[in-house]
Design a protein that fits this description.
By secondary structure, the chain is mainly alpha-helical. 51% of the residues lie in helices and 6% in strands. The radius of gyration is 21 Å and the shape is globular.
Length: 461
């Protein structure tokens, strides 16, 4: 079995994490070891909290949300119209760029296995909290609330990438080994239930300097996104408003301040690690000479910005060899270590909540309110009010604004096109070999072979 490594300074915690993350598949976790370590780790809040923070480190470094080239910020950028991949056959982005994914693709199987291992670890936290006699009620609430948040977050990405997926809520490997896929509708129902539970358990951390632990606002922000993806527009608007109304805690920042550690726009971000370390995104996407070593921003994306859009001038960097020109994303500026960390990897920020509410309002016919929210994002980018008038025009304007605001941020473009029913219309014009069935990734063949209850394979594979 392959071991998934994460950063930790504690010998006990290393043992615990090895027990949690030591298998290729979430169905192969060693039950007796997990029972032993659960008893040990939840004897003390420090070790329990350290086990939880190590899950965040793992999310940052491995799987769907990592800022490395293996994460969806890059791979879904290649899969859609944000990024151009070089033609090096060893480039792991090439199959995404060419829409040539197979059930044997190791990056895709990595998304599945890392996510379910991280979900397993979250479930271990929840179960450990429930049996502990040593933690205070407030400590239990915080640990369980954060674990529910993680479980919900990962399942939301899984269901939007793979379609029907198992919704795993326990650590019994015997049950997990024969689990069936849960319908997408039921997955959304479970996510919403878990997040509402998390909201009752968490406290708000808006005054926290770094915002590296999810509080009530992070759970509400994720719930607003979940409602939007599920086309529950009144609920999406209300939940986004619950975050936006906390004007003493959160505010849109100047365009150059958005991704700094101290940004008031940040709702939740992943800490980079030891002091002086910055983001994996900057390390991967930045290049200083051409041709690009792996990927660059697509000309279609770059040319779609208005010339006076501050996101074009401040969040995109031009590189030239005197003959050719390439572009790389420049949201995170620090691609090397600094004396102290300046940037963390932002997962939720306030701009998304404005655009969630704008879309939800437009879908309900509140076109004035939708334009007000949309224009807040446009004004921050140095642009005038939108000239969209009708509902279809406003929704199209929101889709475009999301393209310019969230490019290379954890697959927003793919999920947006999918939600708007525009994947085929947009990508068939810019991608070679795009098929309707490409709206879902294949279920990894290793998982189908290990557990036939996960069949059938997604269409097209």
């Amino acid at each position: 079995m392959k071991t998934v490594y994460i950063i930790t300074k504690h010998l006990l915690l290393s043992y615990i994490i090895i027990a949690i993350f030591s298998c290729d598949s979430f169905v192969e976790v060693d039950l007796p070891k997990s029972q032993l370590t659960s008893v040990a780790v939840f004897q003390d809040y420090a070790t329990a909290d350290a086990a939880l923070t190590d899950i965040y480190s793992n999310i940052r470094d491995i799987g769907i949300l990592t800022g490395t080239g293996y994460g969806i910020s890059n791979q879904l950028g290649n899969y859609t119209d944000e990024i151009t991949s070089n033609q090096n056959p060893n480039n792991t982005s090439l199959n995404f760029y060419n829409n040539a994914l197979l059930p044997s693709n190791t990056v895709v199987s990595g998304y599945w296995n890392a996510s379910y291992n991280q979900i397993y670890a979250s479930n271990a936290i929840i179960e450990g909290v429930e049996i502990s006699n040593n933690l205070s009620d407030q400590q239990k609430k915080q640990l369980k609330g954060e674990a529910l948040f993680i479980r919900s977050l990962l399942h939301l990405y899984l269901v939007n990438i793979f379609g029907d997926v198992p919704y795993i809520t326990q650590t019994d490997y015997r049950k997990n080994s024969v689990v069936s896929r849960t319908s997408s509708e039921k997955v959304y129902e479970n996510i919403i239930y878990d997040l509402n539970d998390a909201i009752t358990l968490l406290s708000d951390n808006g005054n926290d300097f770094e915002r590296v632990r999810p509080g009530i606002s992070a759970a509400k922000a994720l719930l607003a996104r979940t409602y939007l993806y599920n086309h529950s527009y009144p609920e999406a608007a209300n939940m986004a408003s619950a975050v936006l109304n906390q004007e003493d805690l959160y505010a849109l920042e100047d365009i150059n301040m958005v991704f700094l550690i101290t940004s008031k726009e940040t709702i939740w971000q992943l800490q980079s690690g030891e002091s002086g370390r910055n983001t994996l995104e900057a390390s991967f996407f930045t290049f200083t000479s051409g041709p690009p070593p792996q990927v660059s921003l697509s000309n279609e994306l770059v040319n779609s910005f208005a010339s006076n859009d501050l996101r074009r001038t401040q969040w995109i960097k031009t590189v030239s060899d005197g003959t050719s020109i390439w572009y790389h994303v420049y949201k995170y500026k620090e691609n090397n270590s600094t004396s102290v960390s300046k940037e963390y990897s932002v997962v939720f920020r306030l701009a998304e909540q404005y655009l969630i509410r704008a879309e939800a309002r437009a879908e309900q016919g509140d076109l004035i309110g939708a334009k007000e929210d949309l224009n807040k994002i446009r004004h921050r980018a140095g642009l005038d009010d939108t000239d969209a008038i009708s509902k279809p025009e406003i929704l199209t304007a929101i889709l475009n604004e999301r393209k310019w605001e969230f490019f290379t941020e954890r697959g927003h473009r793919f999920f947006d096109l999918k939600r708007f029913g525009q994947l085929d219309n947009v990508l068939s014009n810019v991608k070679s070999g795009w098929n309707t069935s490409d709206s879902l990734f294949p279920i990894p063949q290793t998982e189908l072979s290990a557990n036939p209850n996960l069949r059938p394979q997604n269409p097209g594979y």
